[in-house]
Design a protein that fits this description.
By secondary structure, the chain is of the alpha/beta class. Helix content is 21%, strand content 23%. A 5-stranded mixed β-sheet has the order 3-4-5-6-7. A two-stranded antiparallel ribbon has the order 1-2. Strand 1 and strand 2 form a beta hairpin. The two termini are 22 Å apart. The mean pLDDT is 87.
Amino acid sequence: MGEDPFGPYLDEIVRGEKIGELPIIVRRYQDVKDIEYCHVIFINKKEGDKIKEILVSVSNRRMLTVSDDPAFLQQGGIIRFFTEKNKIRMQINKAAAEREQVTISSKLLNVSQVVHLKSK
């Protein structure tokens, strides 16, 4: 959602990949109204003031929400990427994942910082 920070890299990673029999498809959106259905949505931090509105628009759709915005988890997002010591790290808002009925694997939880926030 918003400006794509990944360029062609994301498309290259999923090219030919499938989940079960279904191919993984990457789509880019500029307006939340254009999203019919997806499993994972990355919301660029440059969306700023729109992030809360986007999260509200996709709530109750069992969608994994991901961003690099520093305030993302406090706004109800599930996973936040950040850089620490030149490495990409993750923070996970378990309450938001539970609210959206999104299961986070124990392997992912073990390599992430779990942030305990009240569900909104």
